[in-house]
Design a protein that fits this description.
Layout: H1 4-14, H2 20-30, H3 42-50, H4 64-74, H5 78-95, H6 101-116, H7 135-151, H8 156-159, H9 178-194, H10 197-208, H11 213-220, H12 224-250, H13 254-262, H14 265-279
């Protein structure tokens, strides 16, 4: 039970101007939320409110329900993440009317990551939600900005996946002939495209952003063993498809390709990580 008065008490220490009348009004507004997403405790909720107001007069403009939902999502609460996913689905349908179902799924996954995962230059977008307008509206704004960036013209090299990599496949020069390397890169590009939206997202978050299984589990609202299995399956699928397509494009027996690539297995795995930077990263 998150007692509303406990939130008010914690907020007074952060917002000294909070008087008894404003505190009582806030406590009344918090009453319906007392048992909602209880993982966000009184102090955490008070701190979240304090970050968004400069004086007590601004408290009336804070959307407490949406703010609590945002904080619970950032804490990895499974129920809150399910609510967020429903909100994301509405937002992506709204801004991506002309997109295919697959493209909307991809946009929704990218949007989820942008909202919940810290970027190099800032924290998760959801942490910047001011809670003045509906959370759904904020999510749509982030979705529109993300869609514009995704659709923005990019250098031709970035469209071709591995082709522009300066050193991702250095090991390859000692394993495959120069004329075979183009086919290998094409095989990898096609293998990435064959992955599911979730598999690409997991590989991006794990190999590129460096998130561990324990960090991925709350993001997906799933047990760590499930996420570990999903990630292992994604890596296996990417490697298996790369090998299969390489054999197909080079007209080699699969066993011959296995011998070629297995000679540099560690290099192959390093190559996958580097290649994913080109093949999976979408500006956001």
């Amino acid at each position: 039970m998150r007692a509303p008065q406990s939130v008010v008490t914690a907020l007074r220490a952060l917002l000294p101007s909070l008087d008894d009348v404003a505190g009582e009004v806030l406590a009344q507004r918090l009453e319906p939320l007392a048992t909602r997403f209880e993982g966000v405790d009184a102090v955490s909720l008070a701190e979240s409110i304090a970050r968004r107001v400069k004086h007590e007069g601004e408290l009336a403009t804070i959307r407490l329900d949406d703010l609590l939902l945002a904080e619970a999502c950032l804490d990895g609460d499974p129920a809150a993440l399910r609510e967020l996913d429903a909100c994301l689905a509405v937002a992506t349908r709204s801004v991506g009317r002309r997109a295919s179902a697959h493209e909307r799924d991809e946009l929704q996954q990218q949007l989820r990551i942008r909202l919940l995962v810290a970027q190099e230059d800032s924290g998760p977008k959801l942490a910047h939600y001011a809670a003045r307008g509906p959370l759904g509206g904020y999510v749509r704004v982030v979705a529109v900005n993300l869609l514009l960036r995704v659709q923005a013209p990019r250098p031709p090299s970035s469209d071709s996946g591995l082709v522009a990599l300066p050193d991702a496949l250095d090991w390859e020069s000692g394993v495959l002939r120069v004329d075979q390397q183009v086919q290998f890169r094409e095989a990898f590009r096609k293998a990435v495209a064959l992955l599911t939206v979730r598999q690409r997202a997991l590989l991006r978050l794990n190999l590129l952003d460096g998130l561990t299984i324990d960090e991925l589990a709350p993001l997906y609202g799933a047990h760590r063993s499930s996420v570990a299995r999903w990630l292992a399956d994604a890596k296996s699928a990417l490697e298996a498809e790369t090998r299969r397509l390489t054999a197909q494009l080079l007209r080699l027996d699969p066993a011959e390709v296995d011998r070629l690539l297995s000679r540099a297995q560690q290099g192959f795995e390093l190559s996958l990580s580097r290649a994913l930077r080109e093949s999976l990263v979408t500006p956001a």
